[in-house]
Design brief:
The two termini are about 30 Å apart. The radius of gyration is 15 Å and the shape is globular. Helix content is about 85%, strand content about 0%. It has one domain. With about 120 residues, the chain is mainly alpha-helical. The longest helix is centred in the C-terminal third of the chain and has 31 residues.
Length: about 120
């Protein structure tokens, strides 16, 4: 799958875009606990995207932790969706989101190892 190799710039742009979308999308939901957590996770993703290169070099585990927290949040929302009766779309969203987040984690780990192995 050589055609799916993310660069630092493309991954950074993706995280910034997802973070902005998550923050504004959850702000429109009103002041509920779910939207507040969504705003906080969106802000964390946005922060990771904005400072992606330095974090990748020194604290790539923090990036992975934010992505895993986002994955756990998606799974929780999927379970709530299933309990609410929206079974098929909730399961589909969880599966697709899990695949995307696992791909992002793999890309971050690859980029971190490449960044650490290149001479300064």
């Amino acid at each position: 799958m050589a055609f799916l190799k993310e660069s630092v710039r493309s991954l950074r742009a993706y995280l910034v875009l997802v973070g902005i979308t998550a923050v504004f999308g959850n702000l429109q939901q009103g002041a509920t606990l779910l939207s507040t957590v969504g705003v906080l996770l969106g802000a964390a993703i946005l922060g990771v995207g904005v400072s992606f290169r330095p974090l990748l070099f020194k604290h790539s585990d923090y990036i992975v932790n934010v992505l895993v927290a986002n994955l756990l949040w998606v799974i929780l929302l999927g379970l709530l969706g299933v309990l609410g009766g929206d079974v098929l779309s909730s399961i589909a969203i969880v599966i697709v989101s899990t695949l995307v987040i696992l791909y992002l984690v793999k890309s971050v780990r690859r980029l971190a190892s490449e960044t650490r192995s290149t001479p300064v």
